[in-house]
Amino acid sequence: MPNWKGPRYDAGWVYRRVAWGTWMEVGEYSNIESLSYSKSALNSLKLSGSASCDGDPPDEIDAVTAYYTFADGSGEVALVPVMTFLVESDEPQYSASDGGIARSSSLKFYSLLKVLSDIVPEGSLTIPAGTNAVAKAKDIAESVGLRTNNPSSTYTTSEDKTFGSDSTYLSIVNWLLDVAGYASARTDARGVVQMEPYVEPTDRPVSWTFRNDDDSTLLSGPSCENDWRSTPNVVTLEYQTESEYIIATARNIDPDSRASLPSRGWRTKSATVSVSELDGETPQARLDNLKAMAVSEVKSESAEVQYVKIESVFVPVSVNDSIAIEYSGKTWRGSITAIDGNDGPSGDMTIKARIFIRRDVLVDVDGKIS
After folding, report:
1. Contact 246, 277 (CB under 8 A)
2. H-helix or E-strand spanning residue 181
3. Buried (b) or exposed (e) across 183-197, using 16+ Cβ within 10 A?
4. Is-contact 157 127, C-beta < 8 A?
5. Listed residue (113, 41, 76, 6) closest to 339, CA to CA
6. What tens digit of pLDDT does each residue of 227-279 get?
């Protein structure tokens, strides 16, 4: 295994063309340069970026896989896939060169999820009650030519759900995954769509520890921010059918929570969420379940969220990975929400991690049926 924490030689990036459908590597692009990328857990596409190229731009039907490579001090070579994307090129620019003409282009690129985000239902699409939600999400992704990680789940939808032309295939896939307790769709470094059960960041194994020691990959010290002022302290859940409307409101009234109503002088920061799936054989049972969901939601929303930002040379971590940061006696552990990087020889990255400060806050809840 190459040494990521020592000196690196012959470091750089390799871009390979990947044929759509067969997913075989069929060539290499040597003219892609000045690439920058952004990976974000909060963006539905998860990946976007820009680059430039001289000569003919990459094919827009096939995909591109970007690799980071280097040799360590013992001569072992790393060649690590970082991302696979689809390219869109601007109209070319031409300039005189050695008596001839030179062509260059600006590139934009996106994860393969863009295929799903570009498609809307023809008229409408109804997901009938009793549909296996994850299997349906898998079928939609594979129906447009994408590969998936072959997820499986026993969860089935409890009622019909219709999507119109204001929805995309990607938003439909993510709705199906969400109701089944799965995280939103993402792609791995090879462009395979990943559909996985949601796992709390605190329950994920640490994939990398950043330290400011002799083998540190860090380029600077951490910076922090905390969003407790924008944290909702009142959460309202609504459930509505043709014959029934149920509402439940939960409030954070814990004096030990900085985001709570009493701590903020009873200033309200509210959030309202529509619930499309609700268990319960009777109206009262459904109300009780909605109230329990509201309590859980306000506790989750009232968790203080601290963000820690670090800069490092390239290391093999990705969005949603759990990381630890140990810096001069202070320790953080959290989940990566964003990575901004470039194709320089050291592959410098700015990593933003979300640190959860959870408390079992005191909550007041009420609700009604109408």
Report:
1. no
2. none
3. bbbbbeeebbbbbee
4. yes
5. 41
6. 777 888 999 999 999 889 999 999 999 998 888 899 988 889 899 999 988 98
- Give me the amino acid identity at 72: D
Q: Which two tokens stand for residue 169?
A: 């295939």
Could you count the other beta carbons within 10 Å of the beta carbon of residue 256?
10
Name the amino acid, one letter, at 277.
Answer: E
Contacts of 332 (CB under 8 A, 6+ apart): 222, 306, 308, 324, 325, 353, 355
333 DSSP 8-state letter: E
For β-strands 161-163 and 304-312, DSSP reports them as unpaired
Spacing of C-alpha 94 from chain mean position: 38
pLDDT at residue 91, as a whole number: 77
* Structure token pair of residue 5: 């924490």
Q: Is 47 helix (H, G, I), strand (E, B) or coil?
A: strand
Task: Tell me the C-alpha distance between 29 and 298, whole Å.
Answer: 49
Q: Please give the Cα distance from 134 to 108 (Å, whole number).
A: 31
Contacts of residue 344, Cβ cutoff 8 Å, sequence gap at least 6? none
| Distances 17 to 22, 38, 85, 291, 342 between C-alpha atoms, Å | 12, 20, 10, 52, 19
> Tell me, what amino acid is at 76?
E
Cα-based torsion angle of the residue sequence 206, 210, 214, 217 in order, rounded to the nearest 10 degrees: 120
How many CB atoms sit inside 10 A of residue 238's CB? 15
Nearest 10 degrees: Cα torsion 293, 140, 318, 40: -70
Tokens in use for 338? Answer: 């964003």
Secondary structure element (H or E) that encloses residue 67, with its range: strand 63-71
In whole angstroms, give the CA distance from residue 34 to residue 55.
15
Collapsed DSSP state (helix, strand, coil) of residue 329: coil
Give the confidence band of 299 by pLDDT, cuts at 50, 70, 90. confident
